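> Could you send the 3-deoxy-manno-octulosonate cytidylyltransferase prediction when you get a chance?

Sure thing. Input:
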Amino acid sequence: MEKTPLKIIAMIPARYAATRFPGKLMQDLHGKTVILRTYEAAKNTGLFQEVYVVTDSDVIYSEITKNGGNAIMSKKEHECGSDRIAEAVENMKVDIVVNVQGDEPMIDTESLSLLLNVFRGKDANRIDLASLKAPLKEKKDIENPNNVKVITNKEDFALYFSRSPIPYPRDENTGVTWYKHIGIYAFRKQALLDFYRLPMLKLEATEKIECIRYLEYGKNIKMVETTVKGVGIDTPEDLEEARKILSAEK
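Output:
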């Protein structure tokens, strides 16, 4: 008997305010705003039955809806994107919810496809959520606290995330690879709702890494390796870099 296909949707959490670059999602990126480009890129992957932007901003809501897209206004104040998404999907009939970062308009379809495939694989019934990791080569990148590192067990389930270099290189001749956590998540709906309802604990509060909450409460996070690191727009300089990349592709 054939299994019922999974209903998979993408949610793009989008705040207008941003500490380092306020209003970045409404900046122009070759004739379209960053958030509209991200929305269209998610749609164009062909991997999702539905794509939504979920926001607390009238400006962002209007930008998406006036261009024919789906947007949802948050009812409450939220500290993180996962909480914003959980509120939006609570009453939706979905199986897998993918959190697409609103400030990463260069979506890699191949990496997303690999991410979603784990929910159809041999470990599927053990996976609460899945995310991406990319190898780090340079010492400065490994030591950079803005790069969240992840270590996994032999089955690629996450053991821990940290802003510190993990594992600590006491012996540098073991051939270990350091991995950066790429903040794109695919959640089972129930895992996402559990996150929304569970209080933050000390490890998450200390590191300021929201996915640690899942580990602290015993959830299983499957990590999928990719070589694509994406272009996150956190600063005006990042925006210029994204413009250069789009120009080169035209």
